[in-house]
Design goal:
Glutaconate Coenzyme A-transferase; Propionyl-CoA--succinate CoA transferase (chains A, B); 503 residues; five-stranded mixed β-sheet; 26 strands; ActCoA_hydro_N (chains A, B); transferase (chains A, B); acetyl-CoA hydrolase activity (chains A, B); homodimer; alpha/beta; seven-stranded parallel β-sheet
């Protein structure tokens, strides 16, 4: 086992247990850990550290690629082992601690964390923990199901712990393309001019002097939980498929469309699955995460190539992949997130970005992160990287939710803004699709109200817009009423006016 | 005159008067015109069209680089000659029409207009009007004091009118670097790896078949009106100079800093002028506009090179430049705005972006465009292009303004968001500088309140923040009070609580 997974002999006497490794993490350290959308995360050392924190006052600043799998963030949060966390999370327990102010969370564009570390705009990285399939003969790491920020962590950290996951076949080698930008002022372009372009190495470069421990694990990634499509997600997917068919007819795109990016979740999955039907062919993807739908499209012969920073799939899809890496090696590539999400590559390739909104407003501003304007859900993730630089920026959400449609997801004014109207081209709910290209704010409002708002809210929102226009302005608003929907929901449990007790 | 300015003989019989040219602009046309921050705009044809609209019902969609000079936008707006206008303007009359809904305005990132045209996401361009110093022997255009979107307009428009400005010396040739991206899917990187990098031509390529008229003018650019620095702008500049000195001491930058971008206005000018003092040297600039301060720094030997899309300077500076283009040719370059403002180049070079805010909030969200959340001022311009992709994103504003400090420019919640907290590193008012790097929202609020808020508002804003925190949330807010400052100002003429009549 060891000889197959550690080809660099100097590391052999560095093998330690996860518990021993957990004691190499010192109180108040800043730690960078592999892991992006539950893929390729630390499954031994961080959990052991969380366990250690059950009985000991130790806490760290933890930087990852994106979200972690299993109960790692839960356990770290529960045991007060986190001072600060960035750049993304999806954990209910951690979220609770963030929202009551016990854990400081920095919500970051996923492309930026690496920049901030390299530029010295975050505190020095004391330790990196990186999952590996194996270590090559030079001491470098063959990553697993994600790259995330791992290459930057390895470069910037004082010390490194490698977590070798024996459940990942060594045949994974070859799906990664690891490249880091040169130091200022000598940076070069990322010479990626097609989704399958390669500019780096199949491994993460490691300075062996920094390695203070190697830990073995055999725990697989947490599987993706994919909710089956429902009526609403299917309706949204159908609106989008129709839109793309019309774009092809109008001659703006071919049936191969442009490179696709899709956020995580059932809507995105339903949209991608929608492409298995119809005349679309030779599709390509330049995204953050490869999901089940990616592999469905590849297996169906509809998709030629997919680039991302991680693979997060269901249990079935995962085990198929583990046995057949060789079969996919000429069809997928994983990149560091500073490249999968790089503005320059997204713009150059002309990516179609499809992301999920929590809510959007009548002018096309989007809230991706905050419930009721205050409570963090997951984080902005890569949605800003893609929306800003895309060829087409699409946001989807249901028009209303909860019993009796108590929540409208289209609002006079969003309670928090992650994406300004400048960066939003198309909005879709199950009600319809609003094409905002070339429209000024008052025109946008008309189309959004007509196409996207749930019928239960149409009159109230139209009334707000009409009265706001009477007051004037480029972006008409009535500030004293702008959040009434949110305030009403908080007070009455419904955004509907007839449910109002008092405002 | 003609033989010196038109080296392409086929054009000689296309010379027409401005009035004749104005009749080539048909009702409902979409017209792209040169002009960026009052530099290199159409000074004959568009004004003649505005004049024509005095007595005739004709109106167009007008796309420019950025703002126009003289009274062109005034006259077009006054005579109802505009249906739609994008991507930027600074004209009081036009602003009035935009805010009462008579002219549709699309506020765009200055890097994006060109993309939208090329991708077919805006209506087809019927006509381009481009100011030129002269026409070369192949019929191509040597631009004047700006490039803006002119190269894209020339590429995309059905017809072209060239406006030859004889006041611009032909020695201007050589300061431009014109490059347009290849069509999808064959785009290449912009191979600019230093501020003085050149990747294009000294001229704008023209298809002579498209040219339907050549008009001569001798009107100079509208001069920049530079307000002299006052106590507040000097204080802001001093805070920033101190900050940069500290960054150099901390080893994060050298005394050459990183390439500078500065928005237009007296604060930006004061900051740049501040660099003439101190130990800064070999400064470089990668910006949108070259202003007086740029030339002061070059003449003082403090700045080695400056790149932008236009030159907008005072009368004195302008006439010096006109007589001495040769002297500056190895020190400045003008680029199309899709390159001066390109995400990839800004990130690659590590630009320090300094832009002016109308207001910002305690979490670092910035409003750059809308007064009272509804009324458009000028537009987002390039501030988003630079803030998002910069090495350091800095926004400046005065802490309070008007008699008795009736307006606080730091607020519980901004009434409109152009730049989200993700894209804002440093905030400065005359009160102090808030360094937000590595801080979570609640930490950001503490620093912003401490450093940036005017003393008259400190207690009220601290009180809001304290009570919001008691309610919880990652970004604590009290939605029903969030806009009280704005509402109070509208009702009482002051944001101060003791001025409140009723809310």
């Amino acid at each position: 086992m060891t000889s197959e997974r550690i080809l660099f002999k100097d590391y052999e006497d560095k093998i330690i247990s996860a518990n021993e490794a957990a004691f190499l993490i010192k109180d108040k350290m800043t730690v960078g850990s592999s892991g992006f959308t539950k893929a390729g995360d630390s499954k031994a050392v961080l959990p052991a550290f969380a366990k250690r924190a059950e009985n000991e006052n130790v806490a760290i600043t933890l930087i990852t690629g994106a979200s972690l799998g299993h109960t790692t963030d839960t356990d770290l949060a529960k045991n007060d082992a986190l001072i600060k966390r960035m750049p993304f999370q999806v954990d209910p327990t951690l979220r609770g601690k963030i929202n009551n102010g016990e854990v400081y969370f920095i919500d970051q564009h996923l492309s930026e964390t690496s920049e901030l570390l390299v530029n010295g705009h975050l505190s020095k990285l004391d330790l990196a923990i990186i999952e590996a399939a194996y270590v090559d003969e030079n001491g470098n790491i063959i990553p697993t199901t994600s790259i995330g920020n791992s290459a930057t962590f390895a470069q910037m950290a004082d010390k490194i712990i490698i977590e070798i996951n024996t459940e990942i076949p060594t045949t994974v080698k070859g799906i990664h393309d690891v490249h880091l930008p040169e130091a200022y002022p000598n940076r070069k372009p990322y010479e990626i001019t097609s989704v399958d372009g390669r500019i780096g190495n199949e491994y993460i470069t490691i300075d062996p002097e920094k390695v203070i421990g190697i830990v073995f694990t055999d725990i697989t990634d947490s599987p993706a939980q994919i909710a089956p499509p429902d009526e609403k997600t299917i309706a949204i997917a159908n609106h989008l498929v129709k839109f793309f068919e019309d774009e092809v007819k109008a001659g703006r795109m071919t049936e191969s469309l442009m490179p696709l990016q899709a956020g995580i979740g059932k809507v995105a999955n339903a949209v991608l699955t929608g492409f298995t039907k119809g005349d679309f062919k030779n599709l390509i993807m330049y995204s953050e995460v490869l999901q089940d739908s990616t592999f469905e499209l590849i297996d169906a012969g509809k998709m030629d190539f997919a680039s991302a920073s991680s693979i997060t799939v269901s249990k079935e899809c995962y085990s198929n992949l583990m046995q057949n890496f060789d079969q996919y090696k000429d069809k997928i590539v994983l990149r560091p997130q500073n490249i999968s999400n790089a503005a320059e590559v997204i713009r150059r390739l002309g990516v179609i970005a499809i992301n999920t909104a929590i809510e959007f407003d009548i002018y096309g501003n989007v809230n991706s992160t905050h419930i009721g304007g205050t409570k963090m859900m997951n984080g902005i993730g890569g949605s800003g990287d893609f929306a800003r630089n895309s060829y087409l920026s699409i946001f989807v959400t249901q028009s209303a939710s909860k019993e009796n449609n108590a929540i409208s997801h289209v609002l006079p004014m969003v309670s928090h803004i992650d994406h300004t109207e400048h960066d939003v081209d198309i909005l879709v709910t199950e009600q319809g699709l609003a094409d905002l290209r070339g429209l000024a704010p008052r025109e946008r409002a008309k189309v959004i109200i007509e196409k996207c708002v749930h019928p239960d809210y149409k009159e109230a929102i139209q009334d707000y817009f009409t009265r706001a226009c009477q007051r004037g302005g480029h972006t008409p608003h009535i500030l004293e009423e702008a959040f009434n929907f949110h305030i009403r929901f908080k007070e009455t449990g419904s955004m509907k006016e007839n449910s109002m007790v008092s405002v």
